[in-house]
Structure formats: C-alpha cells, structure tokens
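Archive entry: two folds, one per protein. Generate the first.
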Amino acid sequence: MLHKDQIYQKKSRRIDNFDFGQKTTQVFDDMLNRSVPFYSEMQRMIGEIASEFAVEGTRIYDLGCSTCSTFLSINDPIPQGVTFIGVDSSREMLKKGEEKLLQSGFSRKYELLCQDLNKGVPISNASVVIMNFTLQFIRPLYRERVIAEIASGLNNNGCLILIEKVLSQNSTINRLFIKFYYDFKKRNGYSELEIAQKREALENILVPYHFDENRELLLQNGFKGCDMFFRWYNFCGVLAIK
C-alpha cells in the first residue's frame, strides 16, 4: 500500500530545502508515480535497454537507487549472473529499499551502499549504470568528475542510462514545458499550493542542464556515443555507450 504524498499540502511560512529523509521516504513511491510522467514506461524501457548490455559476471549499478523500484522493475529481463549494486546517500531510502526487496522475494545477488555521489562513485566491472533522476541532484561542480568515474568503471561497450529533467534553449518553450508539467501534476491530484511549495523546496537542490550540456558532458568524459531514447516536454532519457 502506497502512502500518499502530502508533504507540501499545508501552507508553510518557511520552506526548507527538499531532502530524501524519513518523511520523503515514506511517500516516495507515490511521489514518483504522481510526479514523473510515464514513469512505469521509463522503468520498462530501462529494463529493455539494460538487458541488451548486461553481461554475465558483471554488475549493474543504480546510482541514486532510492527505494529500489528500478531493481524490481528490471529484474526479469536481466541475466541471473549479473549482480545488482544500489547506491544512495539516504539511509532511510536504502532501508526502505531493502524491505521492498525482501518482501518481493528478490533472489539475485545484490548490495546496497550508502554513498554521497558528490564525493565519488564506487564503480567497477560494470556493464550497465543507471542514473534515474540522480545527476540533477549532484552539484554541478562535481558532475564532470562523476561522469568520468562512471565511464572509468564501465567495461568496454557498457552503457549509462541517464534520465533527467532538462531545460530548453528557448525561454518561451521552456516556460511552456514547465506549465504542461505542472498541469500533469494537477491532473494527478497535486494542488497549486503543493506544486509551488515543492518548487521552492527544490530550487537550490535540483539543478537541471540543457540536453546539449548533458550530451557534451558524456562525450567529453569517456563515452563514444549517446542519443535520446525518451522525451516528454522537459523530461529526457539518454543512452550513452562507452
């Protein structure tokens, strides 16, 4: 049973920065389903793409794994000889993820690591790395290093699956896409107040790039090719190959 996201339902005089602590963890799965367009389809696509690159005896990393929903979603198409490694800076998220894996009967070899990605990316023998709305929360100062470390830890012909919110180069288009996104959230039950307060909470935490900026970041730090596999207004999925 999902706990409903009501974090920003009541008007607050002061909005603290968004975090991934206990309060967010309790409602995170509902938050994703109501806040991310085509979330289940993107998860299916991640599994579809990952299955093409996953190699027996290697590892799949989910950086910013939160409550491990992606592991559960992509489990079936991935070869059994692949080890799953989840990395997240929130101990609360990892605890919830562990509970979900145990409750679901998740039987393959896995490991969950508590790590601040701003301080480094612990990757080795990887055939697939997933960053599902994670890079946007890493400080811009460290993003180049993070991407370079991912590329270094990937085996040749391995892939990075990167999904992000992105900015448009044209300001009018950018405003339209954001408007359409907020309309999507309203259709899923969020009020104007909730949308406004969460936007304020994320203002200094979530820093999106333009698609071209992310593309250059990948191509200049160890990846030989990349392209979009998903786009919905200001949401973008990218496949990058080492």
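Generate the second and append.
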Amino acid sequence: MIDTDTAVAYGLALTTYLEEIVSGKFTYKPNRTLAKHLQRHIWQWFWFLIEPGLEATNWQAEQAMRPGVVNRKVWGGNRTWNGASAQDSVTSVLRTCAQRGREGFHYLTRLLCSIAPIPLPAAKQ
C-alpha cells in the first residue's frame, strides 16, 4: 500500500502522460474518436489516485444492477419501453430502500396508496 502523497503524484503523472499521448495527430478516425473521449474526461481516469477513499472501479454499482439484469434475462425483458421504465423505477426504489436498511415493499405499498408524495426513508442509524 502506498501513502497518499505518492498516490497523488502517480495520479498526476499518469494524467499528464495520458494527456501527452492523446494530444497527438491521429489519421485513423476511430483513434481520433477515442483520443477525443479520453481528452474530454482526462481528469477522471486517475482521480481515484488523487482523491483518497474514492473507489477505482464501479463494482458496487455493477453488483447492485445484477438482480435486475438477471430478472430481465430470465423473463425475456419488457414488452414496451414504458414497462422497462417502470421496472427501472421500481428496481431503483427497492435498491435504495435496501441500501438504507428499510423495507422496500412496505415503502412501495405506502407510496402507491397515498395521495401525496412520500420521501424515501432515511437510513437506519
């Protein structure tokens, strides 16, 4: 494990090096497209080295999406875009409730039976 100052130095050095690489002239269109994308997000690639505590990957988000993806594949997806949107919303609310340690189905029942909007439940202390 490296100390914070060393990680920041590496992050800045890698960002500078990447900036040098992508600022060149590219004759092949896909390479130009990639270089533009890299330049547009130049500070985001190694920010996890500069900002202590920031995850280097999005594995937690990927794992959070997994049940929805499995459900979509098992059931063959949605028949309409409205159905897909509804499933996205319900899945998002259920996941948020789970992350906050609250009962998602109870919240959805209260939400669907109420006249006024109900805020998402706060996290358990």
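Annotation attached to the second fold: The mean pLDDT is 87. Residues 24 and 79 are 46 Å apart (CA to CA).
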